[in-house]
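Late entry, written up from scratch paper. The run itself happened at the end of the previous shift, but nothing got recorded in the book at the time, so transcribing now.
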Amino acid sequence: MQSLSASTKLTLFVLASGRSGTGYLADFFSKNVQQCYSTHEPYFVVGNPVLFGKPIDWNTQHNDHALLPVLERKCRFIARCKEPVYFESSHAFLKAFNRHAGALLNNVGFIHLVRHPALVAKSEWLREQLARRMAIPFVDYNSDDGKRYFRWALTGKETIFQYYANDTLSRFQFYLLQWIEIEYRAMKLIRDNKWQNRVFFIDVNTQLKKETILKQLVKFFDLPHRTSFNMNLRRNRTPFVGPTLITSEDDLEIQWITEKLPDHYKNMLLSEPYFGSLGRFADQGNKQ
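Output as recorded:
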């Protein structure tokens, strides 16, 4: 990575789905990394678009006339930050920014968070259910063609969903496919831009909360940091819901999805960094 003494700001984004420890990592950066502008999901920050909602749909539709001005506004905000490091842990990045990151970002690095897809899908589904039960306003938005979508999710019009166009998907299965699509975008982004040496990988299930791993992270990017880490970090649990559990019915829905999954997605799941950390899910993806 380029040294912090250089004139070009180091810009760090997280590559992740929602419910994958992005809030925990943002709290770690906020409490431990110095000379860094750290944000999770920059709601209500003037000039720094959060990228949820319409930008996700614009990216899916390749509507760059609408999308690019928003992404360029975010880049201008990053450039104006006085700190030599900008860090953002929003899962909107791979939903709205992936196609243009190579052209718009300089001296960039990534932290790739991978949590088991079944746990991600179940947690996202439960979080959406809770938002709707509590009647939280603005959880949906109207796209330019008048359709309504959940603000923090893909639209279901992305390529991966077309392989299941004649099927009725549960919302749990929708989120499974969303996770696969997000990870596919992550690997394509890294490969197309030859950014392999700019990515620090964390297996969320086994590594994220380990201080030794977070020490390796700050060393990887040569980040200035506190001498002693504050590990009293926020965990973004879904209110009124216990631990995320995968049932036998969930397992059947997972198997149905993976059996129909096209080969290029299956091959990804059976390759690094996924196969070693996903275990049974990757094995299911190899059944046909």
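The longest helix spans residues 171-193.
(Scratch paper discarded after transcription.)
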